[in-house]
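Review this today:
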Amino acid sequence: MTTRAALAVVASVALGACVGTARTRATVATASRDANADSSTFAALDSMVPALLARHHVPGIAIAYIDDGAVAWTRVYGEQAPGVPATTATLYNVASLTKPVFAEVMLQLVADGRIALDEPMAAHWVDPDLAADPRHRLLTPRMALSHRIGFPNWRPRGGPLRLEHEPGSGYHYSGEGYSYLARFAERKLGAGIDELARRYVFAPFGMRNTAFTRQPWFEGRIALPADGRGAFGEAHYANPVNGADLLYATVGDYAAFVVGAMRRTSLPVAVARQRDSIHSPDSSEQAKCRAKIAERCADRFGYGLGWSIMEYPGFTVRWHTGSDDGHKAMAFYFPERRRGVVLLTNGANGFMPMIEVAQLLSWGTPFAEFLRTGG
């Protein structure tokens, strides 16, 4: 789901939904470097989060807070499955938060000289649906990562993949583009994405509990998806790897990834600048914001290579949301301030508690107001 679509969901549902039955709750905090400052935050969360989960029928939420370029604490509430408390070891489907992680893997490969952002992917991969369309020769990794590849978000169920827009012509959010890039990388390099991710991102970033495909160590640790009434369903997994969706990670692991991205771990400056620059401006998102909170909007909205980007006077927000059936997620960070937040839930209404928590942890910035208005 796009950032705009995700926040539209938030804006469209009243925050005063009926209170549901409270579930078993577990709260876990890591060591923090400023216990006095954090104690008031913990008190606020302990007061508001259980009620939010009950009100919106969301089984659980995991929260990570990044301060001074390091994971300061994590906190987990609710259940991962019926009667099973969520813990810091719980694995969440992070939905479209998969995209920044997959993009980082690709950019590490660029830094290592194994792929190039502007090389034609057709030399190693052409989807059979596109074989008769000569425009497949134009498709590049940069187009896929910046959502300018020309595909729809997903091909029609059971239908063929088609180019709906001229490649490189403009911003059109596409999970298919990320999936296409995954097939290209695997074929060019003769290695699976999980293997490449472990070498280039998971190990260097300290992510020991993250995978693109189902692993034996997932057993007993999965946050099962829940519908809008809070009823649990079955987990879904990617097979083969989907570069856009269905990554599983703990909240601590995803926070470690955000820290690595913030620190530009292992990336040459030139490649990091490519990732962190707007490649696909989104003027419609800016216009929409200015119609609501004109003087508090970002100067520029757009998409970089893996992250949505909002450029305010004096500071930047890099962020992404995720939305699958029964799973909602959000991550954002302020690179100049070296702060960030990761929020993972296993509920169809997960954006409701996430938005409330995100505002609390956005430090009174204009970004907090942007979240409040639904974008």
In short: The longest strand covers residues 70-81. The domain at 3-98+249-372 is CATH 3.40.710.10 (Beta-lactamase). The CA atoms of residues 275 and 305 lie 5 Å apart. The radius of gyration is 20 Å.
